[in-house]
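Why should sequence recovery work at all? Because a backbone constrains its sequence more than one might expect. Tight turns favour small or flexible residues, buried strands favour hydrophobic ones, and helices have their own preferences. The token representation captures these environments compactly. In the example below, the structure is given first.
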């Protein structure tokens, strides 16, 4: 699949604050790419550099193989950007906002009308099209904001934490919109500090922390490479974790124990044997699937708090 965006060794400081130290990743056409990191990791700064809002101090950005740093036209044509802060005219209707943004991207006349109808249908807000945006909930505004970024039919949609502080219904609607656009071939670059959003929406991920990309790749590969292999065991009355060979680390969780191991199959067999032999009253015994949470912990050394 064609690489549409190549970001290499981006650096950026705000005064003495080093926001980006080395951001390097690439994105293929049609991918849904998650940009995961805590507040302050540098996600917004990276996205602002990609969209030409902020200048980098160093590094390169290539869009469709061409240097995008000073190519505002190419950026405007190919990228739709949904910033963290909603940018809409509160006193204008949803329709008029869309008309304004469409025109600013160079879409006009009957074609613009057609596209506005299309994006309104995607947002599920057709019946609110003529209401002033100031009467909308945060989630509805966000949906219109995403719609505005789609009017010029970009090949890449960049969304900066679009679900922060919005209601679950709008959140689900936004997820559906993003999935549909992605199915239609639009590449997605989605920043978030919610693990589960990356797990449900994205097929590739870059983990960002302290201004650098700590790990990146297909979600499945990261889980395999950095995810913890473990077994959860809960036995009535068990005060200490079982001392089976092959347990690298044991930690208490709920009423049972998480046993980390390199060899899940062997350890499971051993535990089953021990359970039969010692007549354990087993409440639960199961393999724990590696999660993005422990991938994050492994590559950054800290937990990501939602
Ligand atoms: N305009 C600015 N002036 C000074 N410092 C800034 C500015 N913008 C960002 N920073 C700092 O740069 C670092 C990276 O911020 P950035 O907003 O890119 O992170 P983020 O991962 O998007 O986090 P958030 O989710 O909080 O936006 C932070 O330490 C932040 O305080």
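From this structural description, the recovered sequence reads:
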């Amino acid at each position: 699949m064609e690489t549409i965006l190549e970001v290499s060794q981006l650096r950026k400081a705000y005064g003495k604050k080093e926001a980006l130290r080395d951001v390097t990743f690439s994105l293929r056409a049609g991918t849904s790419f998650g940009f995961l990191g805590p507040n302050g990791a540098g996600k917004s700064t990276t996205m602002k550099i990609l969209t030409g809002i902020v200048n980098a101090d160093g590094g390169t950005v290539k869009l469709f193989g061409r240097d995008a740093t000073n190519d505002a036209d190419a950026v405007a044509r190919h990228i739709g950007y949904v910033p963290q802060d909603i940018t809409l005219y509160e006193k204008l209707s949803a329709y008029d906002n869309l008309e304004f943004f469409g025109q600013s991207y160079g879409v006009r006349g009957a074609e613009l009308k057609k596209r506005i109808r299309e994006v309104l249908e995607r947002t599920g807000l057709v019946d609110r099209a003529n209401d002033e945006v100031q009467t909308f909930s945060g989630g509805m505004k966000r949906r219109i904001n995403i719609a505005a970024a789609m009017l010029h039919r970009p090949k890449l949609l960049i969304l900066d934490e679009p679900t922060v502080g919005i209601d679950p219904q709008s959140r689900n609607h936004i997820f559906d919109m993003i999935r549909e656009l992605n199915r239609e071939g639009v590449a997605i670059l989605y920043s978030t500090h919610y693990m589960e959003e990356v797990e449900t929406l994205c097929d590739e991920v870059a983990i960002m922390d302290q201004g650098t990309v700590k790990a990146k790749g297909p979600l499945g590969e990261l889980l395999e490479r950095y995810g913890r292999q473990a077994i959860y065991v809960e036995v009535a009355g068990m005060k200490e974790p079982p001392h089976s060979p092959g347990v690298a680390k044991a930690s208490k969780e709920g009423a049972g124990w998480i046993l980390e191991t390199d060899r899940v199959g062997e350890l499971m067999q051993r535990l089953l044997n021990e359970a039969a032999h010692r007549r354990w009253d087993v409440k639960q015994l199961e393999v724990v699937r590696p999660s993005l949470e422990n991938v994050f912990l492994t590559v950054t050394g800290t937990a990501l708090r939602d």
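A few observations help interpret the result. The two ends are 33 Å apart (CA to CA).
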